[in-house]
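Quick one, tokens below. Sequence please?
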């Protein structure tokens, strides 16, 4: 078995159906054809059964926060996948739901002719609930494959409360998993039987998305029943755009990353999170490119002591180690929680000490105290906070450091910590292309104490929660350029 067994989760008790017409890969989270364990597993089954492979990628229109911004990004990814698979022996079937409920029954119809179904294991948003419901009714073997990160999610069977604790676990256990990596191109030099056709009855009821639809032009988006008030982001989706972003970061930004990543005026962060979230880019591919740059091999860490420290364990450059701590430790820490707790997005999932200190200050006066609408429209007294919110609304992203300040001040200016949490989730998931992700929830809940410790001195409203503010940010970093780009005067000119 080429795909590690720990990454394969059997979702039902149904068997393989040897007389089926094809193996079906239902692509829902790893929306790419490179470094994709799910696609690799589907190829394995197709080869073992000597059956065609049908890759099915769909986009429904009634998911929460559906908008022009998110739809365009996904559609651009579908166009890239279609291009990538057009000269292969794989059949690609894309479907874009034109109205709520139109796609009902499509997966069941495809499953009726399938030998087996492989899909993506993703622990967040509506996907776990959807897979649970589908597994109960699909009469053929259904597997979910984990291609989320360098560490298989189920390699860590406990929830780690801090990055330090999780890092110690990684130091002890990750090297063995680094010896197993997905194939860069699972379809390279692969010949599979060609699928003669998808059932005409299926295509008549659920037509294949046209090339024009996948272009995601404004007129195409305008015809779909989604939120048109949230316009497209300033960056393009899809594997090609992700590969370009990866090359640009390593060639032009990487050497500045260590010293400038926290500077709001400098755009030196990777910008990978939207592509990682929608599966247009794999953490394994990023890691592969980085270790080639660093001339590194896994043997350099096989005998390393588990220190839990951010630097010095990898035997790489200081910049590379700082970046890997973000890509692996902090990103996969969120996956570690989400697959084990259904309430990862609920206030009650905060650590006990955080809930106790926030409750102790729940009745502290809030002045000012803003509503969700005032936050959303960047109508606070704080120009720097307004600038961060404007960047989120207009571009679909937030500078990494400003995201922390953004969340902390929402806590400061909300009627309660519970209200602050709901405001952060709503604004982040509605506007951020990388929202609705385990890593995204980690960032939000960190503002309320998750993965952190108690801090002093104890303050009004915050209690022992770590404090951050715009004034301190402006003292630490130059923000004049950031304000010029996103501040009130710029917004008024627009």
């Amino acid at each position: 078995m080429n795909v590690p067994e720990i990454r394969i989760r059997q979702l039902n008790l149904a068997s393989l159906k040897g007389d089926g017409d094809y193996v079906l890969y239902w692509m829902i989270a790893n929306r790419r054809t490179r470094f994709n364990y799910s696609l690799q597993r589907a190829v394995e089954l197709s080869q073992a059964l000597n059956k065609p492979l049908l890759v099915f990628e769909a986009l429904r229109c009634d998911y929460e926060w559906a908008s022009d911004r998110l739809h365009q990004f996904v559609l651009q990814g579908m166009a890239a996948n279609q291009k990538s698979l057009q000269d292969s022996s794989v059949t690609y079937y894309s479907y874009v739901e034109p109205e709520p409920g139109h796609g009902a029954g499509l997966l069941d119809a495809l499953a009726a002719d399938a030998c087996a179904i492989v899909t993506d294991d993703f622990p967040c948003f509506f996907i776990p609930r959807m897979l649970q419901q589908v597994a109960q009714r699909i009469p053929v073997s259904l597997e979910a494959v984990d291609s989320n990160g360098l560490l298989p999610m189920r390699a860590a069977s406990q929830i780690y409360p801090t990055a330090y604790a999780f890092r110690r676990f990684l130091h002890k256990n990750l090297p063995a998993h680094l010896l197993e990596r997905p194939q860069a191109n699972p379809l390279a030099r692969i010949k599979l039987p060609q699928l003669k056709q998808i059932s005409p009855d299926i295509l008549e009821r659920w037509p294949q998305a046209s090339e024009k639809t996948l272009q995601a032009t404004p007129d195409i988006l305008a015809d779909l029943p989604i939120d048109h008030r949230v316009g497209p982001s300033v960056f393009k989706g899809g594997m090609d755009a992700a590969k370009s972003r990866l090359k640009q970061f390593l060639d032009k930004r990487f050497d500045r990353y260590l010293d400038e990543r926290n500077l709001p005026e400098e755009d030196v962060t990777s910008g990978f999170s939207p592509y990682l979230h929608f599966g247009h880019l794999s953490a394994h591919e990023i890691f592969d490119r980085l270790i080639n740059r660093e001339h590194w091999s896994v043997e350099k860490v096989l005998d390393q002591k588990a220190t839990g420290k951010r630097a010095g364990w990898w035997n790489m450059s200081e910049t590379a180690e700082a970046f890997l701590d973000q890509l692996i430790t902090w990103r996969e820490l969120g996956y570690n929680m989400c697959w084990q707790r259904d309430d990862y997005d609920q206030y009650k999932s905060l650590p006990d000490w955080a809930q106790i200190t926030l409750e102790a200050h729940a009745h502290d006066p809030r002045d000012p105290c803003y509503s969700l609408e005032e936050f959303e429209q960047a109508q606070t007294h704080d120009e720097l906070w307004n600038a961060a919110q404007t960047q989120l609304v207009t571009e679909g992203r937030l500078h990494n450091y400003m995201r922390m300040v953004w969340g902390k001040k929402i806590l400061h200016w909300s009627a309660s910590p519970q209200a602050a949490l709901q405001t952060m989730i709503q604004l982040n998931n509605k506007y951020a292309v990388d929202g609705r992700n385990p890593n995204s929830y980690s960032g939000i809940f960190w503002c309320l104490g998750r993965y952190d410790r108690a801090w002093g001195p104890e303050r009004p409203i915050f209690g022992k929660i770590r404090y951050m503010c715009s004034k301190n940010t402006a003292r630490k970093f130059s923000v004049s350029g950031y304000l010029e780009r996103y501040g009130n005067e710029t917004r008024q000119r627009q």
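The chain has a mean pLDDT of 96. The first helix runs from residue 37 to 49.
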